Amino acid sequence: MIQEDVSLFVDARELVTRYGVRPAALVYRNPSVDVLYQAAVQRGQGRVLASGVLHQATAPYFGRAAKSSFYVNDSSIRFDGHALDELMSWGDPARGDFDNLPIGPEVFERLHQRVIEHLSDAGDLYVVDGWSGRTPTTRLGVRVVTARAPSALFAHNIFLRADTADLVGFEPGWTILHAPSVKAEPADGTNGEPFVITHLGQRLTLIGGTAYHGQIKKAIFCVQNLRLPLRGVLTMHAGASEGNTGMSAIHAGLSGTGKTTLSNTGHPVADDQIAVEIGGHGDEVVSNLEGGQYAKTDKLRREKEPETWDAIRYGTTAENLWVNDDGTVDFDNDSITANGRVGYPLEFVPAAKASAASVAPANVTFLTADGFGVLPPVSRLSVEGGMIHFACGFTSKMPGTELGVTEPMPTFSDFFGKPFMPLKPIWYMDLFAEMVRTCGTEIWLVNTGWLGPAVPGRERVDILVSKAIINAIRDGRVDLSRDNFWYDPVFKLNVPRRVPGVDADLLDPRRSWDDPHAYRQAANKLAAIFQGAIAKLEGVPPEVLAAGPAPVD
Is 17 in the active site? Predict the structure, then answer.
């Protein structure tokens, strides 16, 4: 038993019995960091490394289980007064679409019962109550129930903290029952052992079969991407930052494109999940839905990513890092996975805005990791071009971020986060268009991937170059005059000739190719792939479709 005043925790049993859990031991509510460290070590759930972080291994799952996210589909369920078929963009495995899959209520009940039984027999339990969303419009009470101390610490770090006054009478708007030891079976009709099943009627999510912490944060993000657009709030899989001039920028992108690192330039507001409230009266605000960051550590260097490096200390969770015998970490060793992660509270980033909110975004940057090596490090998009890139969400899936991804693989993910956007696409498209129209937002495409042909040893665009680009855009230092841009007819991009702090030779991707013909072939190949993705879009205006990339003879 953890050495702590037992009287502090006795009343917490009621917090789990309401879910059918009959705890066999103590139930800790919002325990301290010290308590969670002690519990993790005593129960063999984690190891304290030389840096002070609490490390866990999540083998065999080192990333999000991409085909294992389900929503209970039942005609009786209503969400904010809507039938699910009115709202949901259901996945269809027959078409290769495994996002937002429907599942029957009988499967949910079967796995729900197994989760309850596991939590009842698991020994000490941890209840973490907190918030997602910082403003009155976006705030959602979140409760996580788990038997894993490292996961409780992660929830403590990633969600907004509930203070003592908040906990009096706290009623969660959403609950996660977290049971990594419970594995789905073939008879359950899932796509493997891991499962994330959300019941919108019960406002409950079950997580089983995987201890990867990204499932916890993304489960609540999915919920916010359902509820907030129904309230007229745009949600984005994006970070945000504010410069010294007070101007803000949004940085949207899939995992591995640099959201956390680039959002930590200037004064960070958020690194992964944002909400944009569009009032239309000069009161627009972009805010962080989270209370912490969840950063990749592959090839981490202090001189390039000091904010993440300095956050690796006592109180931070870590997953799947290569740990040397002396407890130090080799960030260059990706033998376990290229998707090693650390999770820490936003206050571990000294430059972060305390309010984690900013004014209406003057700029949006779409971060993409182009594996073809043909997109420029930065380009400016028309409004229509921005809409089509938002709808397509092109990037390359990065190694380790999903099961089975071992090398950069071209992919399209609506809104740079389709797995987390359960509503029909029109909800997000309309709100994005309203933001751009209301705020006069400039839209940019930033390639954090590769330049030049795919040859052994080819390196990504240096993160310091991408940082310089983001800083120049956000602070309004890019010359927007017509003479500073040349037009790319294949990708329909306006490419700057000069960006402060960036070598001009890097800005033109053609200069990274010795063979101009090979460059044109690669560019047309990627444009043709874009056309295939564009052809699948529904309900998009013709002028937006026409703004997408297309091969040129």
Answer: no
Active site residue 76: no
Report which DSSP code applies to 277: E
- pTM here is 0.94
pLDDT digits 0-9 by tens, 376-385: 999 999 999 9
Choose, from 29, 143, 199, 259, the residue flagged as catalytic: 259
Q: Which DSSP letter does residue 78 get?
A: E
Active site residue 255: yes
- Catalytic-role residue among 55, 178, 217, 237: 237
Q: Is 6-227 a domain of CATH 3.40.449.10?
A: yes
The closest of 447, 452, 460 to 515, measured between CA atoms, is: 452
Buried b (16+ CB within 10 A) or exposed e, 46-71: bbebebebbbbbbeebbbbbbbbbbb
Q: Which of 255, 265, 411, 413 is catalytic?
A: 255
For residue 399, what pLDDT is reported? 64
| Gap between the terminal Cα atoms of the chain | 72
> Mind listing the pLDDT tens digit for each residue in 107-140?
999 999 999 999 999 999 999 999 999 999 999 9
Residue 260 appears among annotated catalytic residues: yes
Q: Is 64 labeled as catalytic in the residue annotation?
A: yes
Annotated active-site residue 430? The verdict is no
Catalytic residue, candidates 64, 199, 227, 467: 64
Looking at 132, 210, 260, 411, which residue is catalytic?
260
Q: Does domain 296-348 have CATH number 2.170.8.10?
A: yes
The pLDDT tens digits of the residues spanning 152-185 come to 999 999 999 998 899 999 999 999 999 999 999 9
Do 6-227 and 361-545 have matching folds? no
Annotate 131-179 with three-state secondary structure: EECCCCCCCEEEEEEECCHHHHHHHHHHCEECCHHHHCCCCCCEEEEEE
Active site residue 365: no
Quote the percentage of the chain above a pLDDT of 90: 88
Domain boundaries, the chain: 6-227, 296-348, 361-545
Q: What is the CATH number of domain 361-545?
A: 3.90.228.20
The pLDDT tens digits of the residues spanning 306-342 come to 999 999 999 999 999 999 999 999 999 999 999 999 9
- Which of 55, 178, 217, 218 is an active site residue? 218
251: annotated active-site residue: no
